[in-house]
Amino acid sequence: MTTETARPVLDDRRWKALGVCLTAGFISLLDVSIVNVALPSMERGLGASEATQSWVVSGYALAFGLALAPAGRLGDLRGRRQALLFGLALFTAASVGCGLAAGPTWLVVFRLIQGAAAGVVAPQTSGLIQQMFQGAERARAFGFHGSVVAVSTAVGPLVGGLLIEAFGTDDGWRWVFFVNVPIGVAALVAGHRLLPRLPVPGDRREKFDPVGVLLLGSGVLALLLPLVQEQQWQGRAKWALLPVGALLLGAFWMWERAKSSRGDAPLVDLGLFSLRSFTLGTLISLTFFGGLTTIFFVLSLFLQNSLGYTALGAGVTILPFAVASAAGAALGGRLVTRYGRGLVVAGLSGVVLGLLGVVLAVQLVPGRDAGWAMALPLVVAGVGSGLTVSPNTTLTLTLVPVRRAGAAGGVMQTGQRIGSAVGIAVVGAVYFAHLAARGPATKALQLGLLTAMAIILVALVLAVVDLRARQTHPGRDDLAPAPPRGLGESGAGEKAASGA
């Protein structure tokens, strides 16, 4: 199967197979945020130092981000079903290792493996959706995917708080990892039975690109490391890694262009960036996640450290955002074929409006009652988030041919991880700087949220630019006048889902 119009086998099992993919994605994304509330338990029960706690959080994010693009390409070449099952099995085994860790070093090692496994799972999910669904069904499937992204990210603190409450502060942190095991095993069993054995949608003569993997991985590592370690690494020398990362990524770009000019298959098909939908959609995703992730970061700190909320109480306070975001994503999956990029513009506007409401709520309702006052603005922001993530994913990947879907999804999600790291570093610096100056915690939260809002406004501007371009040139989605070489397989049915 090498064309976009080929129908997948086991058609009646596609939606059940989607459930397996979303379950795997849920537990891998849940572990991004669930450990934050368990850090004090790790310190007490395992004797984890601040450096260890930092690596438990940042090591997962680093390994996750580094694995995405090469894992997506591996799935394109060798089959996404096999790659998803391998990543899920490795993630489940690493979760067992984290929960049984006898010391801080072992915990960090297994956490790195767990993050890399999550990076293997993530691009296969978007790639399988591309491969199993088309048109309006694909948009609906990405709607469910957006719901999972929203819920898993936002309910992490709540689930972590419940587990710490249930199993105590000494051993509760272990169950933060053990909770993945029964879910992972069940998903593996179901995956072996339900995931369709689809033909590999590519040329088996294509080879993996180890030099490209090395250059891309080194460049992403150099960019992410000083950002995720911003609070732990003192001094300014760490920022010297940023230009190093830029140079490595530039070398990666030149290497990939050289491979393409020789007729060899690159790790990332640079022709993808001549698609306006892919380029602007990836930039929107990067900047939006740069603001979105920081919302939970500063809110959790403010609620627990400044208002005296428990981890469970902080999770419950953020829950309205998660529920509203899931509903918004499901709705967005149904409406994107009708409204296209205009739906993303509306969603981003809702997020900005909701964040402004949170800023006003903590100003007008000081003290512990601020949590209740945030509920309605968080619902507004949550609906906006759902209307952004799901439609933007659909529009970004809609013209990407199936045989490049894994690599394209990996690039898009690598952008999300970089955006999240940049956002947390920038917003965290604003938040902690105001606290260090002995300013009011409420003011620190407001400044942090306003900074997050400014990052999301960049995404909104990009979405408006794309919308105006679509209105000016209806029916044209590419920056180039014709599909680039290697991307010509996209059929007319794909354009129907683009909302152009």
Tell me what you see in this structure.
The structure is a single chain. The protein has 500 residues and is an all-alpha fold. The protein is 77% helix and 0% strand. It contains 17 helices and no strands. α6 packs antiparallel against α11 and α6 crosses α14 (375-397). The two termini are 27 Å apart. Mean pLDDT is 82; it is low at 1-10 and 478-500.
Strand composition percent? under 5%
The helical percent reads over 70%
- This entry's quaternary arrangement is single chain
Structural category is mainly alpha
Radius of gyration: 22 Å
Succession of helices and strands = HHHHHHHHHHHHHHHHH
Gap between N and C termini, in Å?
27 Å
Overall mean pLDDT:
82
How many DSSP-defined strands?
0
Question: Low-confidence stretches at least 5 residues in length (pLDDT < 50)?
Answer: 1-10, 478-500
Task: State the helix count.
Answer: 17
Shape: globular
Q: What about the largest sheet?
A: none
In short:
The chain is mostly helical. It has helices at 14-33, 39-46, 50-78, 80-100, 104-132, 135-178, 180-194, 210-228, 241-261, 276-306, 311-339, 341-364, 370-373, 375-397, 405-436, 441-472, 492-496.
